């Protein structure tokens, strides 16, 4: 997608001026009242007000901002002329200072709204033509939008996002195998940010569309990390969708990858599913031979010795030692860790937890190569699952 260079330069120049205006407005809005007249923020705003006249008059969406800047200049002029020492003059100055602070806050909000509109419009253009847009440009736009959404909730921004239907575009690009993995991963990051921004509004769109399949089929470490974060946010309803869409076998299969990071991320995802999963999801994991795979991982050279489940006298040193051990032995006691997730999790009823505990113990005995190994892992499961 080619863009007129002169138009792009003009937008960049406008953005630069508006960002400076926004920063000055923010500083003025939070400035102690006694410093208003002599503040650098006031001087910067008044200088930028003159510079911005040219482009403010061209964009009707900036008319309110233009009016606010004019109002600010008028209030500052009035304040500078208010030099009496009586009670009336004091009260007038206090009123003017508070008015200047309010106007500065309005200017900051107006500028942010304009920047949000421009950035979303640019992002929509890129998402509508992802194969014709430079990869780095689109990734940059997505990253900037992710950063903006991550700043916290804003009703005005939410309205813009909903009206633009940008979530559907993100989903379409994320699920398009013809798009670059880098772009698709960045779309996944934005989706995760939108869920943190307002889960109540955007979780339904995650559950109703093909996004879950897109994340799993991407076969990307980053997409799996996003899936884990979505499970933590949306909880059991998302695990229900993962199970009903038949994605659990694929997730379990990642434990067979040679790459260690892949197996660690897969393990994290499995633990989250175990915590929030209902009966059907847990059954699906066990049917895929999860316990056998976990026993093999626990036995592997990556695990080494099992984590000592006893408590020492020096708890703090012990805790630090366990953290270091866990980093170098990511699958130590992984069977017990999975059993604990089921035991303390939110997805199962108490009788289902008891039944799955017995099923796990049975499968452990079947998977172990010796009585000693079986006895050790069974003891871990029984000890780790105790309240």
Automatic annotation (TrEMBL):
<dbReference type="InterPro" id="IPR016024">
    <property type="entry name" value="ARM-type_fold"/>
</dbReference>
<feature type="domain" description="GED">
    <location>
        <begin position="1"/>
        <end position="36"/>
    </location>
</feature>
<dbReference type="InterPro" id="IPR020850">
    <property type="entry name" value="GED_dom"/>
</dbReference>
<protein>
    <submittedName>
        <fullName>ARMADILLO-TYPE FOLD PROTEIN-RELATED</fullName>
    </submittedName>
</protein>
<dbReference type="InterPro" id="IPR011989">
    <property type="entry name" value="ARM-like"/>
</dbReference>
């Amino acid at each position: 997608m080619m863009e007129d260079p002169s138009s792009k330069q003009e937008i960049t120049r406008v953005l630069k001026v508006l960002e400076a205006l926004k920063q000055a407005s923010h500083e003025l809005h939070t400035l102690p009242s006694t410093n208003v007249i002599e503040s650098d923020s006031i001087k910067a705003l008044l200088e930028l007000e003159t510079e911005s006249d040219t482009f403010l008059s061209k964009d009707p969406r900036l008319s309110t901002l233009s009016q606010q800047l004019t109002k600010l200049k008028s209030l500052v002029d009035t304040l500078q002329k208010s030099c009496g020492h009586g009670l009336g003059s004091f009260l007038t100055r206090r009123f003017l200072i508070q008015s200047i602070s309010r106007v500065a806050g309005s200017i900051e909000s107006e500028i942010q709204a304009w920047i949000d509109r421009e950035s979303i419009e640019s992002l929509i253009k890129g998402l509508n033509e992802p194969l014709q847009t430079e990869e780095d440009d689109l990734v940059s736009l997505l990253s900037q939008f992710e950063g903006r959404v991550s700043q916290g909730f804003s009703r005005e921004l939410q309205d813009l996002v909903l009206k633009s239907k940008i979530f559907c575009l993100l989903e379409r690009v994320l699920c398009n195998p013809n798009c670059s993995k880098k772009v698709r991963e960045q779309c996944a990051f934005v989706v995760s940010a939108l869920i943190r921004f307002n889960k109540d509004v955007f979780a339904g769109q995650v559950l109703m569309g093909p996004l879950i399949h897109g994340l799993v089929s991407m076969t990307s470490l980053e997409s799996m990390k996003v899936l884990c974060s979505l499970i933590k946010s949306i909880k059991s309803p998302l695990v229900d969708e993962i199970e009903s869409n038949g994605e659990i076998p694929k997730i379990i299969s990642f434990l067979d990858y040679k790459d260690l990071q892949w197996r660690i991320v897969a393990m994290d995802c499995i633990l989250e599913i175990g915590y929030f999963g209902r009966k059907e999801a847990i059954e699906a994991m066990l049917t895929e031979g999860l316990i056998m795979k976990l026993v093999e991982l626990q036995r592997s050279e990556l695990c080494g010795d099992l984590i000592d489940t006893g408590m020492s006298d020096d708890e703090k040193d012990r805790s630090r030692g366990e953290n270091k051990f866990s980093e170098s032995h990511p699958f130590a006691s992984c069977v017990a860790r999975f059993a604990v997730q089921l035991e303390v999790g939110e997805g199962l009823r108490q009788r289902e937890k008891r039944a799955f505990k017995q099923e796990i113990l049975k499968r452990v005995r079947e998977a172990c190569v010796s009585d000693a190994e079986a006895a050790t892992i069974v003891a871990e499961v029984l000890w780790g699952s105790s309240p």
